[in-house]
Amino acid sequence: MAAIPAPSYSDIRKAIAKGNLAPIYLLHGEEGYYIDELAKAFENLVPESERDFNLYTLYAPEVEPELVASTCRRYPMMAERQVVILKEAQSVRADQLNKLHVYASNPNPTTVLVICCRGAQAKDLIAQIKAHGGVIFESKKLTERNIDPVISGIIKEKGLNIEPKGLSMLRDFIGTDVAKMHNEINKLALILGPGAMITPESIEVNVGISK
């Protein structure tokens, strides 16, 4: 049987929007932008009025794995789910992070646990997450060889088009800084409007890049 491909950033965003949620997500890898954006999307699952009761943001260096697990085992207050986000998981030893594998083997169905980790993987934890319906997302660092389709994807997502010369200008100016790339394309989308063609001239005027 062929292996099921790992979900992409876009796949997870779409699933969140539809409410198709897994009990645990491990977001790891070297590119922090996508990890941070997904964490925000999970936070937004909880309305502002419920955040005091149903949204927990924990920092791995400050809490023991047992506290994370006990928080996850709580039930939401007058809501369908609670969201627990564990940040900076790369700052604790792998054996500490691996202690969550006990919870991962039997997760609370009314909790969405999101583990944000820029760094080494915790193999025991990954195995349990996969075995019990969780999602592993690796946010890979972009390189000059694979940045073009990412730029094109962001532009398409914003409802814009771009000329080949404009694409190369953005790539050469911004490089592999994903956060900056999103910011500049968002700026162009606001200025040019839906369906517009991004030309070298519009980039020169609005981004400040010279041909």
Q: What's the layout of helices and strands?
A:
Elements: H1 9-18, E1 24-28, H2 32-43, H3 51-54, E2 55-59, H4 65-73, E3 82-87, H5 94-97, H6 101-104, E4 111-117, H7 123-131, E5 135-138, H8 147-157, E6 161-162, H9 164-174, H10 178-192, E7 197-198, H11 200-206
Distance from first to last alpha carbon? 50 Å
Largest sheet: 5 strands, parallel
Q: Helical region count? A: 11
Uncertain residue segments: none
Question: Nearest-angstrom radius of gyration?
Answer: 20 Å
Strand content: 5-15%
Number of strands: 7
Estimated structural class: alpha/beta
How do the strands line up in the largest sheet?
Answer: 2-3-4-1-5
What is the helix fraction of residues, given as a range?
40-55%
H/E series: HEHHEHEHHEHEHEHHEH
- Quick one: overall form? elongated
Mean pLDDT: 91
Question: Would you give an account of this structure?
Answer:
- The chain is α/β, with parallel strands linked by helices.
- Helix content is 45%, strand content 15%.
- The protein is built from eleven helices and seven strands.
- The chain has helices spanning 9-18, 32-43, 51-54, 65-73, 94-97, 101-104, 123-131, 147-157, 164-174, 178-192, 200-206; strands at residues 24-28, 55-59, 82-87, 111-117, 135-138, 161-162, 197-198.
- It has a five-stranded parallel sheet with strand order 2-3-4-1-5, with helices on both faces.
- Strand 2 (55-59), helix 4 and strand 3 form a beta-alpha-beta unit.
- The N and C termini lie far apart (50 Å).
